[in-house]
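Lecture notes, continued. The same structure-token format from the folding unit now serves as the input rather than the output. Read the line below as a description of shape only.
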């Protein structure tokens, strides 16, 4: 009997020490934790007013700030610390600082949440990208790029810098490669309307590095892993590598006139997600040159990858949220999380997610719904502004400080 008790005491001691070591190392809880990571923030803007809502999901705290204009597009920088507000209609970009800084295994609170000093003024800044510590906008009004580095975000009077690649006004896009060059769309006028037809490579001065070799019937949507960039086009997927080599990857059989107008980074090199409302969401593999379906549906309202790059979330118009494994496309779970939204509704919910929770705006309710990805029926409602428009998740999926 004493021997059994001794074994039990040793076992309990081992468990206690292991748990303490695990906590000391800063390991995060598993996906079905009851709360969001402490250092995740959600920024929500409003369609009609300049009101911003900054949510700390772990506590439910909502702080209020004032943007320069309403109805902006919201993005998160590659570092995770900042959010960018792109005011296309007002030719303006501003930066919001979470005040959080990641240090490999923990997060420091460096400052209080506030707007950074740097701003951008350009001719219809529209498409946004971020790589390393750099942010980039494509300016539809004149075909230029604007760039800025996080090192200057809090420099008084700092402005985004222009790169003129000799283009003309069009609804364009760009990516940045690991070698420092940019892939930028070109409007040659062969197709009516604002969409570009070609892509060329430029350097940081705007000088051409590699000319376009393929003309398409129109380009929209793009993504890059730093080595290869994928542009959606009516002619097929335009694949451009950082040396300037270009090729077309044909659409799947039966696509007809449908094409991928949205391209998302897929979480690993050579892997992307293509989405079209006319067909659904598909894996794109630029290494094997294959396109395979994840979900084939014409009822998709939102299609997003979580910040942990583990899941693809698909929100249907009927209010169903589907969670797919980004590694293999397997459906993990699904459930009804919203009331149905009409396809012709002008104020539709928008979706973003971490590895633990989905966050969905309810424009007519003045709320953001926080949906537990392990238990989809578990939904927390957070009051924000009267007409929430867009949201972005920034900060870090981490709960450890010093």
């Amino acid at each position: 009997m004493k021997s059994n008790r001794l074994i039990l005491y040793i076992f309990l001691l081992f468990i206690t020490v292991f748990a303490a070591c695990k906590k000391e190392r800063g390991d995060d809880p598993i996906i079905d934790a009851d709360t969001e990571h402490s250092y995740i923030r959600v920024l929500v803007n409003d369609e009609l007013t300049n009101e911003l809502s900054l949510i700390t999901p772990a506590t439910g705290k909502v702080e209020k700030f004032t943007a320069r204009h309403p109805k902006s597009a919201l993005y998160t920088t590659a570092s995770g610390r900042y959010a960018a507000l792109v005011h296309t209609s007002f030719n303006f970009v501003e930066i919001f600082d979470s005040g959080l800084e990641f240090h490999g295994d923990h997060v420091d609170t460096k400052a209080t949440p506030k707007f950074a000093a740097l701003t951008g003024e350009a001719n219809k800044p529209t498409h946004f990208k971020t790589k390393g510590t750099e942010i980039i906008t494509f300016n539809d009004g004149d075909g230029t790029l604007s760039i800025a580095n996080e090192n200057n975000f809090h420099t008084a009077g700092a402005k985004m810098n222009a790169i003129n690649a000799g283009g003309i006004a069009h609804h364009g896009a760009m990516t940045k490669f690991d070698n420092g060059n940019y892939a930028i769309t070109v409007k040659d006028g062969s197709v009516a309307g604002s969409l570009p037809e070609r892509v060329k490579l430029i350097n940081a001065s705007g000088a051409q590095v590699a000319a376009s070799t393929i003309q398409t019937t129109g380009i929209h949507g793009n993504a890059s892993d730093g080595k290869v960039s994928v542009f959606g086009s009516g002619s097929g997927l335009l694949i451009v590598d950082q040396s300037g080599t270009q090729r077309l990857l044909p659409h799947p059989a039966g696509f007809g006139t449908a094409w991928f107008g949205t391209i998302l980074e897929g979480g690993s090199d050579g892997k992307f997600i293509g989405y079209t409302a006319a067909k659904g969401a598909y894996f794109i593999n630029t290494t094997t040159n294959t396109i395979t379906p994840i979900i084939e549906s014409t009822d998709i309202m939102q299609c997003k990858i979580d910040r942990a790059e583990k899941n693809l979330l698909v929100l249907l118009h009927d209010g169903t949220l589907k969670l797919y494994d980004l590694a293999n496309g397997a459906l993990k779970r699904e459930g009804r999380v919203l009331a149905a939204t009409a396809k012709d509704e002008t104020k539709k919910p928008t979706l973003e997610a971490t590895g633990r929770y989905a966050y969905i705006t309810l424009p007519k309710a003045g709320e953001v719904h926080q949906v537990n990805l392990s238990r989809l029926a578990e939904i927390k409602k957070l009051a924000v502004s009267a007409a929430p428009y867009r949201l972005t998740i920034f900060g870090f999926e981490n709960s450890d400080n010093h």
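Point for the exam: The longest strand covers residues 114-121.
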